Amino acid sequence: MQRDDAFLRAWRDTATGTPEPEDDDRQRPPLQFRTLWISDLHLGTPGCQARALLDFLKHTECETLFLVGDIIDGWQLKRHWYWPQAHNDVIQKLLRKARKGTRVIFIPGNHDEFARKYLNHNFGGIDVADEWIHETADGRKLWIIHGDLFDGVIQCAKWLAYVGDSLYEFTLKLNRHLNSLRARMGLPYWSLSKYLKGKVKRAVSYVGDFENAVAREARKRGAQGVVCGHIHHAEMRDIDGILYCNDGDWVESLTALAEHADGTLEIIDWAEHMPVPSKATPVREAVSA
Q1: What angle do helix axes 158-184 and 192-199 make, rounded to 10 degrees?
Q2: CA-angle at 21, arms to 17 and 24, nearest 5°
Q3: Are 64 and 257 in contact (CB under 8 A)?
Q4: Residues 6+ away with beta carbon under 8 Å from 32
Q5: Hey, how many other C-beta atoms are within 10 angstroms of the C-beta on 281?
Q6: Residue 263: pLDDT above 70?
Q7: ∠66-27-190 over CA atoms, to 5°?
Q8: Per-residue b/e over 108-120, b at no fewer than 16 CB within 10 Å?
């Protein structure tokens, strides 16, 4: 039996397993939101910042939580099985939120595309959907999609995406050694791959093309905005009258998109909320968009 199918059964069955322990941090009451969006967790890889993610899940509450794709990295799990306790704790926490009344909606991405055969099913209280229209408190309609369908590399040359995944893995492994040195010097985490994305002309052009394509499709669908992930680049801006929102990732940026009670949207950089970011954020390894 394939690991993908076995894992999804485990996801479903975990709902009746050992409960995730209560958080004993009494000094940090949870932040309250109407809606939260997170994506690109890449559970199943050393690059996933599971401890920072758990801190985020423990110290935020919302009515609806969207998991906007690449939650589980099936690509890397097929190459090498990696599933530490912290990653299991993340799944437990998500399931526990669903049991306690949060509506949790999972929209699969390309790295967890195996889940797309389970669309319109429910696993432990988590709904699996291909896309979603969310209406904000102030009446705006937001189209929710992972975004890989607008990535020409994924759609036209998937083999190249796998090559890019390996190259990205090498970059982040190099970054791991760099940040070990920075940690010994008392310096905070610094992302080499994020820096390169911002400096390399072709990468900047790719991000811009992706954002414009997603915004155009949102307009066609009659939405006032779009929320996506995929490219590991948190952003919120107007594109020809369409509000483009990308919630970032939990490999490099530790970001989420949040909706407040009045419908106001903002990008949250969780590194700014963690008590000791330089120690709580371990050195990253490898995944790609």
Answers
A1: 120
A2: 175
A3: no
A4: 60, 61, 62, 261
A5: 20
A6: yes
A7: 60
A8: bbbbbbbbeebee
Task: Indicate whether this model's pTM tops 0.85.
Answer: no
The per-residue pLDDT for range 99-130, each reduced to its tens digit, is 999 999 999 999 999 999 999 999 889 999 99
Average pLDDT over residues 30-39: 98
End-to-end Cα distance, the chain? 27
Rounded-to-integer distance, Cα 47 and Cα 185, Å = 22
CB atoms within 10 A of CB 235: 17
- What's the burial of 185, exposed, middle or buried (CB within 10 Å: 0-12/13-18/19+)? exposed
Give the per-residue pLDDT at 19: 54
Mean per-residue pLDDT, 262-285:
73
Backbone phi, psi, residue 236, to 5°: -145, 115
Instruction: Give tens-digit pLDDT for 231-247.
Output: 888 999 999 999 999 99
Confidence class for position 1, pLDDT limits 50, 70, 90: very low
